[in-house]
Amino acid sequence: MGSYRYPRYEYRPTPDATAARPVEHETVVVGAGPVGLAFALDMAQRGRRVLLLDEDDTVSVGSRAICWSKRTLEIMDRLGLGDRLLGKGVLWNTGRVFFRDREIYHFDLLPETGHRMPAFINLQQYYFEEFAIDAVLAHPSIELRFRSRVTAIEPGPDGVLLTVESPQGTYRLHASWLIACDGARSSLRRHMGLAFRGKVFEDRFLITDVQMQADFPAERWFWFEPPFHEGQSALLHKQADNVWRIDLQLGWDADPEEEKRPERVVPRLRAMLGEDRPFEIEWISVYTFQCRQLERFRHGRVIFAGDAAHQVSPFGARGGNGGIQDTDNLAWKLALVQEGVAPESLLDSYDVERGAATDENILNSTRSTDFITPKGEASRAFRDAVLQLSERFPFARRFVNSGRLSVPAVYDGSPLNGPDRGDFPAAMRPGSPCTDAPVRCGGTEGWLLHQLGREFTLLLCPPAGTEPRVAAAEAADALSDAGLGVAVKTIGGDPACDIVDHRGVATARYALAPGTAYLIRPDQHVAARWRTFARDEARAALARAIGREV
């Protein structure tokens, strides 16, 4: 692995290993991959203590997940890692689709300006983990124990008893809440006897990371039946450190172990890249498409997230990004339950919301797989006709499916959603993630999402004739005895507002008008919106958003 030096993290002895009885921990997370690390950071920044266990002592080997979506970047920005990820990652918004020997069209995933984050960055998973581990190790509320493997669990009504193998020997500890982020081969899922439901597709793909100098642009390139790989498909992505991700379809009959041998891989790469281009192979893997999930993500005091809860095909970048959205949905809810502010039943909405998001991801992933790898002559004829039409007719391009790329989930139908009062457009409806916009705060240029924080926020456009500070005070008073802290922030063109929409971008994206109010959840999804703020409706919406009886 020439471009990256793997860190080794030391095991630090813990008194838990020599305690006379299992030591109590409020929240234990198993798995220090991107999902477990993001969850630990989120909980810690909400004031909760977290114990994070991982059986390894380094980051993931091989680049693995590489495409991180705009929504994921916004979440990680809130956790303090946005600048570091942007600084190392390869930013991209555009892609190109090829059929045989020609380009048939290109697309732009973020054609409008006024966003802090790009549509995607490409960054190897080991960098993502390294940056997150640095933040975790620096946080006083998180303890990360490497070389600590969970070998058994005993769930109970008030928590979970864990058996842990470590360099100090085997010991037990007790978790009030256990969060399983231990990946596709989750041992916790196995210990609980839980099985995935879904489908394994009869096709295999070769993933190869190569380091090389190339002047290809930072775009997503996807080929159907290219001349260099006849009858199959191929994908090319640029990563950091001049590492390039290449995916090549192999077919179901391919022998995975045989296809990983360099003498099999190198000729395929030379056919694609040219005989004269030097490259160095960094990582080789063969994978099979899988679209599977648990029936339920929450099992009492054990909650599953990321690949431990669901698996999708790599095309579309829905796996890692979906896992980060899992933690974004779960952390604020669990923190409020632990604080005694919300009932434990609030956690059932994690199943509802992220279950629906997973269904959507699996549906899109399944459709992508069916289009990329047609299993019959009729399917192939349809696909090829769509590709040929797409070169000349834009209407046909929406039928091309080379991997519907990850978009943030909208929690339509969530039991936490409040009213949607007024003549609003469909965008930014309850359940939607908030869209960013350039704004000015205290005379400084900034971004709207940075102003929403980690708590419930009432975003209020002051009514006509009302000073912003007066409107904010009245709204804050209306919500003051609701039993939950709510930040009230005024927004508009008035320089006296907390958030000054000096370019009018937020006004357009949120359809703001005098009197408009949005109640925003701690995960920056819309809980409710009104054309006129009403005290009783706002209090009821707030109660609903934390799972209380209304």
What would you say this structure looks like, in words?
It contains 13 helices and 26 strands. By secondary structure, the protein is an alpha/beta fold. Among the domains are: 225 residues, FAD/NAD(P)-binding domain, CATH 3.50.50; 108 residues, Glutaredoxin (3-Layer(aba) Sandwich). The strands form 5 sheets. Strands 1, 2, 8, 9, 10, 11, 17 and 18 form an 8-stranded mixed β-sheet that branches. The protein has an 8-stranded mixed β-sheet with strand order 6-5-13-14-15-12-16-19. A 5-stranded mixed β-sheet has the order 24-23-22-25-26, with helices on one face. Helix 1 runs parallel beside helix 4 and helix 8 packs antiparallel against helix 9. The N and C termini lie far apart (57 Å). The model has no long low-confidence stretch (mean pLDDT 94).
What amount of the residues lies in strands? Answer: 25-35%
Total helices: the number is 13
What is the global morphology? globular
Give the helix proportion (percent range): 25-40%
- Give the class-level CATH name of the domain at 15-89 and 122-197 and 291-364: Alpha Beta
Whole-number mean pLDDT = 94
Task: Sketch the major β-sheet.
Answer: 8 strands, mixed
Structure classification: alpha/beta
Question: Could you say what the CATH architecture of the domain at 15-89 and 122-197 and 291-364 is?
Answer: 3-Layer(bba) Sandwich
Number of DSSP strand runs: 26
CATH superfamily of the domain at 15-89 and 122-197 and 291-364: FAD/NAD(P)-binding domain
First-to-last CA distance? 57 Å
CATH overall fold name of the domain at 15-89 and 122-197 and 291-364: FAD/NAD(P)-binding domain
Radius of gyration: 25 Å
Q: Uncertain runs with pLDDT below 50, 5 residues or more?
A: none
